[in-house]
């Protein structure tokens, strides 16, 4: 299995280009089959989750032409098998977006229930509530969610919890329903707005995305479009925290600074300097890091997908900090790994109490999930000595060329897949 081996201690310095947003791209790809015409999508991140979803869509009959690593042409007119099978779902949870797109277009959909993952149980009750409000009959049978409707009629949906996935899935189905749909307490993430803009570029009528009330007027059909995915604010934030943890000076390029406001605010509180440009943000960490308090919230609050990276930075800040995880019930699993690198963190239910230490020491650790894996790499970059990160397939799900981008900023990191390669790296790194 591939691993990252890292020799810590180098401050990250320089500029890094941010790729397209994985969580916007996954929903946009699923929505692309809602027309029988050909859709071109670019600025896709070249990561495992995207490639897995493209495979799942091919499996149900979508015609997909890869123009290059970041661009595809998709034609959904040949989609025939509605059930999205277990194999596809196992590879990529976000196949559940095919529920909304297939239900909207064919008035029936069947997708294997994704089940839980390492950060929580990941229920779909709000997705189902939304589809039922549009008149669909939805049941869970044989481990799959099956939805069908004679007709989809616009309705009024109040989401009990702010849910990115439910907001997007319902928005897709409602785009081709008859009449008006209102989604209240909708998620406001940038990727929700990106999916709405994509659907509108195909002829949908969606207003209010980015606010907590989204109004959709169903249309007969959708047409072709060419669309570019927004930059990934989670990838950008990950590099910003890597700059802070390594006392570096990094400019993340091709970003939308407004999407990073919560991250910027916390880095400023922790003692970093942050400079915003039109499509870039520069983080300079020349002073000792200071403690602060963080609570993860739906956008525009501090993103849960940045929680592990923030904790790693606070783990080597002066003083005692707290990080409260209010979105997922099991998102501190990585703390045990970080403790093996010298962190002094106590997790009480959904709060991590962090007593800053002078620095981390290298160790062999295992990535428990995508964002925690990236956070452990950041810890390794700032640690004294050698860190080996196992199970990096999680990280490769959502970060394009993560090691190469870090190397371009001066990190000593290499992707390896044998003990021999690890020894060679250690010998070279001295
Ligand atoms: C999306 O997951 C992202 N994944 C997650 O990113 C991200 O952490 C999450 O949004 C929150 O921002 C993708 O976009 C593919 P939710 P999603 O529905 O849509 C509860 C990453 O690292 N809930 O907003 O599944 C749920 O349990 C991944 O890229 C219900 O109760 O998240 C959670 O507590 C990790 N019922 C809360 O809502 C439902 O029907 C927010 O979940 C749905 C969700």
Written overview of the protein:
The chain is an alpha/beta fold and about 425 residues long. It folds into 2 domains: about 5-20 and about 230-430, Alpha-beta prism (UDP-n-acetylglucosamine1-carboxyvinyl-transferase, Chain), CATH 3.65.10.10; about 20-230, Alpha-beta prism (UDP-n-acetylglucosamine1-carboxyvinyl-transferase, Chain), CATH 3.65.10. It has helices at about 20-30, 50-60, 85-90, 95-105, 125-135, 165-175, 190-200, 235-245, 260-270, 305-315, 335-340, 370-380, 395, 400-405, 420-430; strands spanning about 5, 15, 40, 65-70, 70-75, 85, 110, 135-140, 145-150, 155-160, 180-185, 205, 215, 225-230, 250-255, 275, 280-285, 295, 320-325, 345-350, 350-355, 365, 385-390, 410-415. The strands form 6 sheets. Strands 22-23-1-24 form a 4-stranded mixed β-sheet, sandwiched between helices. Strands 2-15-17-16 form a 4-stranded mixed β-sheet, with helices on one face. Strands 4-5-3-14 form a 4-stranded mixed β-sheet, with helices on one face. Helix 6 (about 165-175) packs parallel to helix 7 (about 190-200) and helix 10 packs parallel to helix 12 (about 370-380). The protein is globular, with a radius of gyration of 22 Å. The mean pLDDT is about 95. Ligand EPZ binds near residues 26, 94, 125 and 165.
């Amino acid at each position: 299995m591939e691993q990252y081996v890292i020799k810590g201690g180098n401050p990250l310095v320089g500029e890094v280009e941010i790729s397209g947003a994985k969580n916007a791209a996954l929903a946009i790809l699923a929505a692309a089959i809602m027309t029988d015409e050909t859709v071109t999508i670019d600025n896709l991140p070249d990561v495992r989750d995207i490639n897995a979803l493209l495979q799942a869509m091919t499996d149900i009959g979508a015609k997909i032409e890869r123009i290059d690593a970041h661009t595809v042409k998709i034609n959904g007119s040949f989609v025939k098998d509605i059930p999205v099978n277990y194999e596809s779902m196992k590879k990529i949870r976000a196949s559940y977006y095919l529920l909304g797109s297939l239900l909207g277009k064919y008035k029936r959909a069947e997708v294997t229930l994704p089940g839980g993952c390492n950060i929580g149980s990941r229920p779909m009750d709000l997705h189902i509530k939304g589809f039922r409000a549009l008149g669909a009959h939805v049941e869970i049978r044989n481990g799959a969610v099956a939805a069908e409707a004679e007709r989809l009629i616009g309705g009024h949906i109040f989401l009990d919890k702010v849910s990115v996935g439910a907001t997007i899935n319902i928005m897709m189905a409602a785009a081709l329903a008859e009449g008006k749909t209102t989604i209240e307490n909708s998620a406001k993430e940038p990727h929700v707005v990106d999916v709405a803009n994509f659907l509108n570029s195909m002829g949908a009528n969606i207003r209010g995305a980015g606010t907590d009330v989204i109004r959709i007027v169903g249309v007969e059909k959708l047409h072709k479009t060419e669309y570019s995915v927004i930059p990934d604010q989670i990838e950008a934030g990950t590099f910003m925290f890597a700059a802070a943890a390594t006392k570096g000076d990094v400019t993340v390029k091709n970003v939308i600074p407004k999407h990073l406001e919560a991250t910027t605010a916390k880095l400023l509180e922790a003692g970093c300097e942050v400079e915003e440009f039109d499509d870039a943000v520069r983080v300079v960490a020349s002073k000792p890091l200071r403690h602060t308090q963080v609570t993860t919230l739906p956008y525009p609050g501090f993103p849960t997908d940045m929680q592990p990276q923030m904790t790693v930075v606070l783990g080597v800040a002066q003083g005692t900090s707290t990080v409260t995880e209010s979105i997922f019930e099991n998102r501190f699993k990585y703390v045990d790994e970080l403790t093996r690198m010298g962190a002094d963190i106590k997790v009480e239910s959904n709060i991590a109490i962090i007593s800053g230490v002078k620095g981390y020491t290298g160790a062999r650790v295992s990535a428990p999930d995508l964002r925690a894996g990236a956070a452990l790499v950041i810890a390794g970059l700032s640690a004294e000595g050698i860190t080996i990160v196992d199970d990096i397939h999680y990280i490769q799900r959502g970060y394009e060329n993560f090691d190469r981008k870090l190397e371009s900023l001066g990190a000593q990191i290499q992707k390896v897949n044998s003990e021999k390669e690890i020894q060679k790296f250690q010998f070279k790194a001295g």
